[in-house]
Every structure is written in structure tokens, then in C-alpha cells.
Amino acid sequence: MRQAKGDYIFIVNNDTEVTPDLLHRLLAPFYNDPAIGVTSPKIRYFFEPGIIQYAGFNPMNPFTGRTSTVGDREADKGQYDVSRPTYGAHGCAMMVKRDVIDKTGMFPEVFFLYYEEWDWSARIRKAGYKIWYTADATIYHKESMSVGKQNPMKVYYHTRNRILYIRRNSAWYQRLVFYIFFASFVAPKECLKYIAARKWEHLRNFWKGMVRGYGRMRYANGGE
After folding, report:
1. Domain limits of the chain?
2. 91 φψ region: left (φ > 0), alpha (ψ -120 to 50), beta (else)
3. Which of 22, 34, 38, 103 sits most deeply, having the most CB atoms within 10 A of its CB?
4. What is the pTM of this model?
5. Per-residue pLDDT tens over the stretch 15-56
6. Whole-angstrom distance, CA of residue 163 vs CA of residue 175
7. What is the pLDDT of residues 119-141, one digit of tens each?
8. CB neighbours of residue 53 within 10 Å
9. What's CA 47's distance to the chain center, in Å?
């Protein structure tokens, strides 16, 4: 992104297959509405090409640090064929206007993996831009092929970055509820799950992620 010179930057995962007209369709909404700052396509699973992974995001819950994906695991029968604003761009594929980058900066590198697109999406929307789900653009995603579905590293970053996102993007009372919820429900559940499965490395990464998530005060206050 730092090297790119264009007016629009296309960010895409390395485990995807693009369709021939993808870039054209992702660029089109910018010319129709100057308030649009980011466009994301409909994402289908590569190994199940008729199944949707992403057709927009629902709002992030500031008390749990969780959201849900519109259309995930649904057969694509045209039910999400209308483009519209959405709450978050998908890190798998997004077209970003240069003006957005100049105004909000880039991905917060402290996240490294997971939740980075949500933190950036929150900043983009606060800056007054729309994030646009582009229904007539499609990409295919080989989900979790890069990291691996059962990789303990995924546990670490999901845990750490979930906490870090809430600390950076929630009001004090939302953070308080989140801390109580996480300590009372999330931590016991995850620990018991990994102990029962004898996944000791996963358990260590969960605790490591939790400690790091709560401990990085400078990054929680917006530092990179």
C-alpha cells in the first residue's frame, strides 16, 4: 500500500481466485456516490462455490467483541444481490479510495492478523465514509488456507485482537461490560474446551493472547 501510486488500492488475500470483471465492478460505485470510501465484493467459498461467505457485515457488538457475517454458509440464491452500505469491509478483498487512506491512515499494524479490517472500518466510518457491499462483484476465497483452521496462532491473535479492538473502539461502560463478560463466560468456556480436547498449545495461546490484549496500553489508546 505504501508503494502504490493509484487513486484506488485493491487489497486482496493470497488465497483467493478473482473473477474477470471484479476490479471494474468494485470501482463503479465510487463514481456514483462520492461518500463511498471502500467497496467489498460478495465472497463465496472456493471449495463450495455456490455458498456465500460474505455479503456484508452486521454491526460489531461493543459488549462482546463479536459480529456476524451476512449470508455466511447460505446457498447463493440471489437473496443478497442488492448492493448497500455495510458496517465493515472484509479483509479478504476490498477496494479503497486513496482519499480514505490519506485521511484515516492504513491498517493498524499492531493487529497483524484478524480484527485489523474491523478497526480500520471503524475509523473509516467515523471519518464519514460509507463502506459498500458490492453485490455484482464476486471473489472466491480458500478460507483459512493461509493460516490453517486449527493453527494455535489463530487462537492467539483472535483472543488478543478481540480485546484490543474493544479497548480501542468502545466507550468506558462498554469496555466494563466486555471485561465482565469475557472473564465470566469466554475465558472459562475456552479453557475448558481446550483442556477437554487436550489441546495444550491452544490453551497456552489463549492465555497469552488474553494477557497481551489486556496489557498493551499504548496500542489500546491508538498507537501503532
Report:
1. 8-141, 152-220
2. alpha
3. 38
4. 0.87
5. 999 999 999 999 999 999 999 999 999 999 999 999 999 999
6. 9
7. 999 999 999 999 999 999 999 99
8. 21
9. 21
